[in-house]
Structure to design on (192 residues):
């Protein structure tokens, strides 16, 4: 894992970059040691009347760096992981044709998930993971099961939509593997 820079690594006058405003160079204009706050002022053009001003608190220190990271792909997320670390763990923990449950916005709530069948067939050729939405007919024929239920045999799960490559993006400052707006690596968002 990557480790974000610490509060004491920053001094007034430092030129820095912030994940909250990619591409904008900032300068540290002040520090509040009692609250461990760092005050930033953008050094580039800005259309906001008050300018591009950001305050970094202890919970958002992961967003601040001295490194010129002007694209999202360079940034470790709030857990200190790069997108490649998250993808590699996902690949290590899943297998071809496995059915998993994804959640909208990574909010794992009972009854709010959608099952997906994973395919790694395009990994070597195009470096893509595919997923296809799935559903099963509920016992006694009363509706569909949308969240994966391991008590239902794999042979009873049927496609309900097209297979598509997962996209990688940040969701709530955490790297996520997405089918549309559905997060498939939702376990990375679980507390603890």
């Amino acid at each position: 894992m990557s480790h974000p820079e610490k509060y004491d690594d920053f001094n007034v006058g430092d030129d820095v970059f912030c994940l909250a405003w990619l591409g904008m160079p900032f300068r540290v204009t002040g520090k509040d040691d009692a609250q461990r706050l760092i005050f930033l002022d953008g050094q580039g053009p800005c259309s906001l009347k008050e300018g591009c001003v950001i305050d970094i608190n202890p919970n958002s220190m992961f967003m601040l760096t001295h490194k010129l990271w002007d694209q999202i792909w360079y940034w470790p997320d709030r857990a200190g992981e790069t997108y490649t670390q998250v993808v590699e763990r996902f690949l290590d923990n899943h297998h071809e044709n496995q059915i998993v449950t994804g959640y909208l916005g990574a909010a794992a709530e009972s009854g709010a998930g959608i099952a997906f069948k994973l395919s790694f067939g395009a990994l070597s050729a195009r470096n893509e993971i595919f997923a296809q939405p799935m559903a099963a007919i509920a016992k006694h024929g009363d509706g569909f099961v949308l969240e994966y239920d391991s008590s239902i045999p794999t042979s009873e799960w049927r496609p309900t939509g097209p297979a598509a490559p997962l996209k990688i993006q940040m969701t709530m400052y955490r790297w996520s593997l997405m089918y549309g707006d559905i997060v498939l690596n939702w376990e990375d968002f679980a507390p603890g």
The helical segments are 83-93, 123-126. The mean pLDDT is 89. The CA atoms of residues 78 and 108 lie 19 Å apart. The two ends are 16 Å apart (CA to CA).
